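Q: I'm building a small set of examples for a reading group on sequence design. Run inverse folding on the following structure and report the sequence directly after it, with nothing in between.
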């Protein structure tokens, strides 16, 4: 094929993203790689030649959702023979060729470290062949690729600062699907944040599986945060996720020194029982965790704390479960992502531990945690009534065109009458009332 022709094909790619923030950030890297190779991004599936599904493998229900979607797309392919489907991300890495054997309308799988090969892969499958690119890398960070901000509001963007994870929590598939941990060069991170700010963005979220172990020759995570936060006081900086074992006081000191580093720390606890934490290979005790919480509250009295928790892990007794409820009562999280344990093939837990809590019992324990957390979130929000917050205005509220929403530094959503407020600017909002999920207020 003539090279000019190759770069002139204008074939259209539609990307659907499931799962975590990291996947959304990766889809933006994928879009950038494909645009450089001459593909355009389709606005909808209807005018796409390729549908790329960026997938999550963390729990079985995440995978079932994708399988369902792939099967649904078969009907589209029958009507429109040219549509090719590719599966990206963690499910592609985990299942590799097996996925194409089981879902034969999938043309290719491409794992998280192989996205630079996508232009070749798309060319390969154009004539009906199948392809699998699933090699993991110890060095790939896509540092030189400027992500195409898909579906962005022009205000808030993700910046991936590291990839992979080698903590090997015994329940977790991520070390197998995303490979070894590696950190991106800090200069490229600071330059990306600066460039976003120059284009009008007012919030960046630095992403990694465990940002606290970010390490590059020149900088650890606290130094990196200091540099990004120094770009401009009007640029909000968020980060996720923090592993409790690595959350250092020096990070909290850097946060305290920069009011534009948001007062919100996502600190997944997973369980309130030391016995479970040991079985989960988490490398901390509840005493250590509570010490980290105390330290956050000492350094940053107005900081919100959020978490992840798993109900019904292998061997979890009612006592262990009670310990989780007790921990929730003690920490009083502002938000929690709460899950039932889902056994993942290949993990330490799947190989060596029995998934011995009945599904109905997992659900019961999960619901108990959800109900407790709902009540705590409501009570926390009730304490916010009467307070004033600086809010970064993000857009129209779902309820009404007359209302806008934004977030405060603590990442709580505030809804208020529009008046003269403009998305992308900071405004002061007084909180008048609340639900468990939202603060309702008015512009000051
Ligand atoms: N089952 C249930 N939840 C899981 N998580 C990770 N692996 C599993 C699993 N096998 C949860 C953890 C993690 C979050 C991203 O997903 O709480 O912090
Ligand atoms: Fe999974 Fe643990 Fe790594 Fe988080 S830190 S991605 S839970 S292995």
């Amino acid at each position: 094929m003539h090279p000019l022709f190759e770069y002139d094909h204008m074939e259209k790619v539609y990307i659907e993203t499931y799962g975590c923030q990291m996947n959304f950030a990766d889809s933006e890297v994928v879009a950038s790689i494909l645009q450089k190779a001459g593909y355009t991004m389709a606005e909808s599936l209807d005018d796409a030649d390729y549908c790329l599904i960026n997938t999550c493998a963390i729990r079985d229900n995440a995978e079932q959702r994708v399988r369902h979607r792939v099967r649904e797309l078969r009907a589209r392919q029958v009507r429109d023979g040219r549509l090719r489907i590719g599966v990206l991300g963690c499910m592609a890495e985990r299942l590799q060729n097996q996925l194409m054997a089981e879902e034969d309308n999938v043309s290719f799988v491409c794992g998280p470290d192989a996205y630079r090969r996508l232009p070749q892969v798309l060319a390969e499958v154009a004539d009906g062949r199948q392809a699998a690119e699933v090699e993991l890398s110890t060095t790939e960070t896509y540092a030189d690729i400027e992500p195409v901000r898909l579906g962005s509001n022009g205000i808030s963007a993700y910046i991936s600062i590291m990839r992979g994870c080698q903590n090997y929590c015994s329940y977790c598939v991520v070390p197998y699907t995303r490979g070894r941990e590696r950190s991106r060069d800090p200069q490229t991170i600071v330059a990306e944040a600066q460039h976003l700010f120059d284009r009008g963005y007012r919030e960046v979220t630095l992403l990694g599986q465990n940002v606290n172990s970010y390490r590059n020759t020149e900088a650890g995570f606290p130094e990196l945060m200091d540099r990004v936060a120094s770009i401009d006081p009007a640029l909000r900086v968020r980060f996720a996720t923090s592993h409790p074992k690595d959350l250092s006081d020096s990070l909290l000191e850097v946060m305290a020194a920069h009011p534009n580093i948001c007062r919100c720390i996502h600190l997944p606890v997973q369980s309130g029982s030391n016995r479970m934490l040991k079985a989960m290979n988490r490398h901390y005790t509840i005493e250590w965790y509570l010490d980290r919480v105390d330290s956050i509250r000492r350094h940053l009295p107005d900081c919100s704390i959020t978490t992840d928790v798993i109900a019904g892990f292998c061997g979890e007794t009612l006592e262990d479960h009670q310990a989780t409820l007790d921990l929730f009562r003690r920490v009083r999280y502002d938000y929690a992502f709460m899950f039932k344990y889902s056994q993942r093939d290949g993990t330490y837990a799947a190989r060596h531990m029995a998934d011995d809590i009945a599904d109905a019992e997992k659900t019961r324990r999960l619901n108990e945690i959800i109900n407790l957390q709902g009540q705590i979130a409501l009570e926390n929000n009730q304490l916010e009534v009467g307070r004033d917050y600086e809010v970064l205005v993000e857009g129209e509220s779902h309820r009404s065109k007359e209302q806008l929403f934004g977030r405060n530094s603590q990442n709580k959503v505030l809804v208020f009458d529009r008046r003269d407020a403009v998305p992308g600017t900071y405004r002061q909002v007084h909180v008048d009332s609340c639900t468990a999920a939202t603060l309702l207020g008015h512009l000051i």
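The chain has a mean pLDDT of 95.
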